[in-house]
Design brief:
Largest sheet of chain A: 7 strands, mixed
CATH architecture of the largest domain in chain B: 2-Layer Sandwich
CATH class of chain A: Alpha Beta
CATH architecture of chain A: Alpha-Beta Barrel
Structural class of chain B: alpha/beta
Number of domains of chain B: 3
Strand order of the largest sheet of chain A: 4-3-2-1-5-6-7
CATH superfamily of the largest domain in chain B: Aconitase, domain 3
Distance between the termini of chain A: 35 Å
Helix content of chain A: 25-40%
CATH topology of chain A: Aconitase, domain 4
Shape of chain B: globular
Strand content of chain B: 15-25%
Helix content of chain B: 25-40%
Number of strands of chain B: 18
Radius of gyration of chain A: 15 Å
Largest sheet of chain B: 5 strands, parallel
Oligomer: heterodimer
Shape of chain A: globular
Order of helices and strands of chain A: EHHHEHEHEHEEEHH
CATH superfamily of chain A: Aconitase, domain 4
Largest interface: A-B, 36 and 42 residues
Number of helices of chain A: 8
Number of helices of chain B: 16
CATH topology of the largest domain in chain B: Aconitase, domain 3
Strand content of chain A: 15-25%
Number of domains of chain A: 1
Chain lengths: 158, 409
């Protein structure tokens, strides 16, 4: 189970992690500024296993991989959105952050609701009902299962 | 058109949208912000050599010249990486990556190119399939020379007729983003055609392909013609296979009549929040920016110079002009545009990403308002999150700088 942190449509990468923080030496230092312009205390409130829920086009804008990376580093279990921007989606899988498309979840949850996600079965469990969500294509699921592209490539070589 | 480029790249008869294929990468671009991360991941992946040092381009542009001491760390890491692995193409102060990739002939018609920047879609202006990726994927390409892609569906955009004098390519792409919305072309290719597009310079096409990502597009393609061949220094007969077949399948077709188009702006803080300039006319400005990989080319500086010739920038407005590359800077100096702009009161900066990426050269604070010719007006991009950013064409920007408020050129 994890708590829901709900965001709007078109959350861009500058809102997830602003460009001035990209020069910090590592993700650990960067992660405290996650969502700074739209939810200043997000990094303090979020706990391991929590879930980010958003509307359409989550992660639009820049190609910065730090955007999914800070979310993963903060312990976010998954991002569930109505749709994702292409580069963010790819980057998330490559670094091992589950990104799930669900058109219905957004309107059925509020901030801080408790939900559970079964990534393998493609199910989101709410208190009253269970919603189906996307399962990833096998190639991407493999990358994700291996903890991202690097572990995946290393695995292939072994 | 995209299917033809991918098919030829992988040596297949044909490909269909939705198919996942592994392409052979012709060229990649890494810029200064991400080189430390690419370098770290490359070594973490256990690679010991680059797949082809000749195909890799490293460009310092977001942080040139250094504004903070931390910036220098990125240049040093880049230099060490380039030296260690024998990279040949390193640009340390020549201009903005997307300008240099086509200007220097790194991205050519029919090529498949990836870059660690979302505006990598720019090279579609010469009929190149180019797209932005993250740094982990880039590190993987540096070692393997390969990349998996899903063949995208295509949206056809047709523009016919003659544009009114005060309307430019920038207005067309803004209008299109407004109509498609910020995610309307996600995972898709845009393909431009029509008499207006045929008449356009490669530079104008570049402004449009540059902003394709603002509608979520994977790439934006223009069929090469004589102008492209000359610009890219290739024989037209070698690249004239790149065009959309008459019977090609499109998931959507959008048609505009150039005569109906008017100057538009993207309003704070979404690129798809498009309004006619007339609707927001009179909005007071603190700053105007003409430059970036979207609109920092010679024709943009010329358009601004023609409007500002003999005029003065409004007293309380700062006009910042940033040519997209050193070559353009020199050409604009030779043509006299820089003198005209300076006389009018412009602050002319070194080529680079500077203000557009909110790092240097004119950042703003709470309550201030800017009209800029670049590609993004996201919250907090050019300073604090309470800065209002409007995006428009160089003509609209120049006229607005004189008026001190948003006006039509």
């Amino acid at each position: 189970m994890g708590r829901v942190f709900k965001f709007h449509n078109d959350v861009d990468t500058d809102q997830i992690i602003a460009s001035q923080y990209l020069l910090l030496p590592n993700i650990e230092e960067m992660k405290v500024y996650t969502f700074e312009s739209i939810d200043r205390d997000f990094a303090k409130k979020v706990e391991k296993g929590d879930i980010v829920v958003a509307g359409e086009n989550f992660g639009c804008g820049s190609s910065r991989e730090q955007a999914p990376s800070v979310l993963k580093a903060l312990g976010v279990k998954a991002v569930v959105a109505k749709s994702f921007a292409r580069i963010f989606y790819r980057n998330s899988i490559n670094i091992g952050l589950p990104v799930i498309i669900s058109k219905d979840l957004y309107d059925k949850v509020e901030d801080m609701d408790q939900i559970d996600i079964d990534l393998t079965e493609g199910l989101i469990k709410l208190s009253e009902e269970t919603l189906p969500c996307t399962k990833l294509p096998p190639y991407m699921q493999n990358i994700l299962d291996n903890g991202g592209l690097i572990s995946f490539l290393n695995q292939e070589e072994a | 058109m995209i299917e033809k480029i991918i098919s030829r790249n992988i040596g297949a008869e044909s490909v269909t949208p939705g198919q996942i294929v592994t392409v052979n990468v012709d060229r990649v671009m890494i810029h200064d912000i991400f080189i430390p991360f690419v370098a770290e991941k490359f070594e973490e992946m256990g690679f010991t050599k680059l797949w082809d040092p000749d195909k890799i381009v490293l460009i310092y542009d977001h942080m040139v010249p250094a504004s903070t001491v931390d910036d220098i760390r990125h240049f040093k890491i880049g230099d060490v990486f380039a030296e260690k692995y024998g990279m040949k193409h390193v640009h340390r102060s020549d201009g903005i990556c997307h300008q240099l990739m086509t200007e220097c002939g790194y991205a050519k018609p029919g090529n498949v190119v990836f870059g660690t920047d979302s505006h990598t879609t720019t090279y579609g202006c010469v009929g190149c399939f180019s797209s932005g990726i993250g740094y982990t994927e880039m590190a993987s390409i540096l070692g393997t020379g390969e990349m998996w892609v899903k063949v995208p569906e295509t949206i056809k955009v047709v523009v016919n007729g003659k544009l009114p004098d005060n309307v430019s390519a920038k207005d067309i792409i803004l209008k299109l983003i407004g109509d498609l919305r910020a995610d309307g072309a996600t995972y898709k290719a845009l393909e431009f055609s029509g008499s207006t597009i045929d008449e356009m310079t490669v530079a104008s096409r570049m402004s449009m392909s540059n902003m394709a990502i603002e509608a979520g597009a994977k790439c934006a393609l223009f069929a090469p013609d004589e102008k492209t061949a000359e610009y890219s220094n290739v024989e037209l007969s070698d690249v004239d296979w790149i065009y959309g077949d008459k019977d090609a399948k499109y998931c959507q077709t959008i048609t505009y009549n150039a005569e109906d188009l008017v100057p538009v702006v993207a309003c704070p803080s979404q690129v798809d929040k498009i309004r006619d300039v007339k609707e927001v006319e009179g909005t007071k400005l603190d700053q105007v920016f003409i430059g970036s990989c979207t609109n920092g080319r010679l024709e943009d500086l010329k358009a601004a110079a023609e409007i500002l010739d003999g005029k003065k920038v409004a007293d309380y407005v700062k006009l910042i002009v940033t040519p997209a590359s050193r070559k353009i800077y020199q050409e604009a100096a030779k043509a006299g545009y820089l003198t005209i702009l300076a006389k009018a009161g412009a602050i002319i900066t070194q080529p680079g990403c500077g203000l557009c990426c909110g790092r240097a050269g004119g950042i703003l604070t709470d309550g201030e308002r800017i009209l800029a010719t670049n590609n993004r007006n996201f919250l907090g991009r050019m300073g604090t999150s309470k800065v209002e950013i409007y995006l428009g064409s160089p003509k609209t920007a120049a006229a607005s700088a004189i008026a001190g408020k948003i006006v039509e050129a």
